[in-house]
Write a structure and sequence with these properties.
alpha/beta, Rossmann fold, 44% helix, disordered C terminus
Length: 226
Amino acid sequence: MLSSMQKEAIIVLFLLAIAACSNNAIPKNIPTDRTIGVIGCSNTFQSAYGYRWAGGNQVWFVHRDNMHDMDSGSVMEWTRNGPSRDFWKTFDNYLTQNPQTSKVWWQLCIPRDQADITTEEAAPIIEQLRKRIPNVQIYVSPLSDFPDHPCEITGIEGVERAKSLAIELDKQYDDIHPGPILGPLYAHEIGEEDHCHPNEEGMGKLGRQLKEFFDDQEKGLGDDNS
C-alpha cells in the first residue's frame, strides 16, 4: 500500500509532467491538419515558433526542442542535399506529420559569400517541392532586414540578394508567389552573438507578422499578391 506521502508525491510528479507537456501542445508524430510547410534556415524556424505563440494554426507546428532542425539551411545548402546534413529528410519528416500540406513558405537565407546565387541554382528546390506536394503553391520571402547592425552571416549583400531573388522567382514561376515580408529586426529584437537571430521579443514580432499574412491567405484575402 502507498502511504499518503507517496500518493502526494505521485500526484505532484503527474502535475509536473502535464505542465512540461503543455509547452508543446501538439504531440510529436501525431498527424495534423496544418496546410503550410516551411523551408529555410534557423531564422525561419524561429519565426514559425513565434507564429505558434501568436496562435497561428496553419504553418507547421515547431516544438521548442526542434527549433534548430533547419540551422544553416541556406538556399545553396538545400540544393546540395549532402550526406552530412540532409535537409530534405527533415522536411519529409514534417510532411509526414502534416499530410494536408498544400503550400510552402520558403524563406531565402543567403550567406554573404553566396550572394551571387542565380535562379537556376535555386531551381532544384522548386522541383523537389513539386515532386513531394502535387500542385504546391510556394510563398517566397527574403530574410528580415537588420537596420541597426547587419547580420554577420548574411551581411547586407545576402539580404539584398534574397530580396531580388524572391522577385525573380515570382516572375519566372507560376506556382511561386510573394511571401510575407518579416521584420525589420532592431538591436533589441536580436541576439548579440552574431546579430542574426531573433530573441524572444523578435520571435514574437516575426510570428505575429507571419500569422497576419497566412491567416489572410487562408481566408481568401491577399490572393492578388502575385
